[in-house]
User: What shape does this take?
Amino acid sequence: MGGPRLTIVVLGGSGFIGSSVVAHGRSLGMHVASLRAPRVTAPHGPPEASAEWWRGHHAGAFEGLVAALEPFDVVVNAAGQAAPTSGDERGLLAANAVLPVVVARAAHEAGVRRVVHVSTAAVQGRLDPLDETPDVFPLSPYARSKAQGEQALLGGRERQSTGHQLGGAPAEVVVYRPTSVHGGGRAVTRSLARLAAALPGVPVAGRGDRPAPVALVENVAAGVVFAATMPDPAPVVLQPWEGLTTRRLLELFGARRIVAVPERLADAGLDLLARSTARSARLTGHLRRAEVVVRGQGVRASALADAGFRPPFALQQWEELAR
Assistant: This one.
């Protein structure tokens, strides 16, 4: 991998993360193209079975995707439904579990060497710290759909390495897990700013010195491009922690007063809320966002750092975003 002739195509390159990946790659002088992802359906079964159905019933569209991917060395799949509060399980399954398998199989037939699939750290739920194992503990329909996509891709990679291909997969599949992504114009970022400024007091667990698992979209884009070009990537890559604690994050976004709540009390309250909202995808999604700010979550990410990656944007860019 690597070298001056490396070419990358980003599926979903007009989306929030995808457009940043395209821009970052081009800023480094790389040949990076954007491609609209096909719309798939999830008629039945696990992602593998649904992908086979789609390939069989939409042969022309699949062949067109193969042809579109042929000029490229790396495919970045940044397409899907980024909808943490959605309860549309069938739609989420199609976009976040079936589509990645369709893309991987098309990439295999196109001779693409590597696929980088943009997933989410939400697949690990409340695991603390988040890590780069294939273990998943999803808490919402959105996280479950992302976890199913990961498992289908990683399972296909494992079967290929042992000589048993599941319909064909590229030589290298990398699952990339961003933590909570923030950037100008994103709803979750605006919501955080509004709440921090509006509430008379914002609670944090303990002293507020726990890591806040958040990332600037520009740093996510840089990490994805790095994963697309680095030699011998790990199968699962987690976005590195950017150094913000829960208290510092709230301070940046203008919290008028931060209330330190004993950790045991904060944990008990959040756990009670989790049980009471478990049947609502919308409420579960909102609660997970609140947990990131109130309780924080450790981030055990080493795959990129060990290879020399450092997030290019730091505290100054967080300050600018908050303003």
In short: The radius of gyration is 20 Å. The chain has a mean pLDDT of 92. The first strand starts at residue 7 and ends at 11. Strands lie at 7-11, 31-35, 74-77, 114-118, 172-177, 180-182, 202-205, 214-216, 236-238, 258-261.
